[in-house]
Amino acid sequence: MDTPQPSSPVAAPVEWIPLTVASCNLLNLALPGRVFYPNQEPYGMAEHERKLDWIGQMLRRLNADVAGVQEVWDEAALKAAVARSGLQSMQALAPGAEIGAQGTPRVGLVTRLKVEAVRSLAEFGPGESVIVPEVGEHARFERPVLHATLRTKRGQRLHVLVAHLKSKRPKFLQDAEGRALEDRDDPRVAARASLRSMIMRGAESAALRARVIELIHRTRDPLVLLGDMNDGPHSVTSQLIAATQAVAYDRQARDVALFHALDVQTEPALRRDLAYSHVFQGWPELLDQIWVSEEWVGSSRFALGDVRRVEVFNDHLHEGRDRTRSDHGFVRALLRLKSSPAA
């Protein structure tokens, strides 16, 4: 008679904790009557109210636990838009815009998670500056990066970076009063000016890459990068930040790589080339992006969760130009975190 074999223990079912994150370029969110760019009229009260209504409606539709926002001139306007959403227990902050940003808008964060720490990263690290032709040293982010340390509902530490990198708009030379110092109608001059912008965006990407490595190298803290990268996910500048391509020939590189959320989502989705968040001169681009560290890649042996699905909310891009709406689509990702004790 065969001796009964002990049965194998049944693995406990995994408990998934949902976490929704989003990236939203708000298109010059400022208080009424406040001049943000010299060549643009400030918002009137009625126009400002319509903008708050629209942003509030979009935030309510996204219902994200964490939203990284860009182009905030006044933190008070961001708080008003969040209040207009009707969402409860949401904290809104925009370092550098508490009493009104000067020169360039700031990035911000809207979250219902516990905020443990917030830093504004303006300066590049030692040895990270570059020389821009005819301009000189570029040693800081035009729009400082926000680094927030949050705690999930179950106490897991989460790093969130919010970025808005240098645009592709040509960097023409001008004097202290903003007067042009070169012929902007000369295509050769325009090419040189675009080169300056590309170098500046590349320098910002490399500096952001250094901050990413500091946070994820040899750690198991999950990280999410939210932002308007002003370039596509497979561009040179985006890959400077993420270094995902290195994973193909070096699995050790996963520890310091970031993964585009669309590429690692686990639900079936439409073709990735149908996703776009901005239309420039008729050409659709995915400038607004969500990147995640290895801990969100379900196939990784170090996975603490996964990316369930990614959605792009871009219908308003085809409703005509109106600065009360954004000229960017909003990107949302549903992440899932395995339940774990506080770290």
Properties at a glance:
alpha+beta; 6-stranded mixed sheet; 343 residues
Helix content: 10-25%
Contiguous helical run count: 5
Strand % is: 25-35%
What order do the strands of the largest sheet run in, or round the barrel if closed? Answer: 3-4-2-1-16-15
**Over the alpha carbons, how many angstroms does the gyration radius reach?**
22 Å
Number of strands: 16
Shape: globular
The helix/strand order is EHEHEEEEEEEHEHEHEEEEE
Biggest beta-sheet profile: 6 strands, mixed
Distance between the termini: 51 Å
Low-confidence stretches: none
What is the mean predicted local confidence, pLDDT? 91
Secondary structural class: alpha+beta
Can you describe this structure?
The protein has about 350 residues and is α+β, with helices and mostly antiparallel strands. The protein contains 5 helices and 16 strands. The protein has helices at about 45-60, 75-85, 185-215, 235-240, 260-265, and strands at about 15-30, 65-70, 90-95, 105-110, 115-125, 130, 135-140, 140-150, 155-165, 225-230, 260, 280, 285, 290, 305-315, 330-340. Strands 3-4-2-1-16-15 form a 6-stranded mixed beta sheet. A hairpin with a 3-residue loop joins strand 6 and strand 7. The radius of gyration is 22 Å and the shape is globular. The mean pLDDT is about 90.
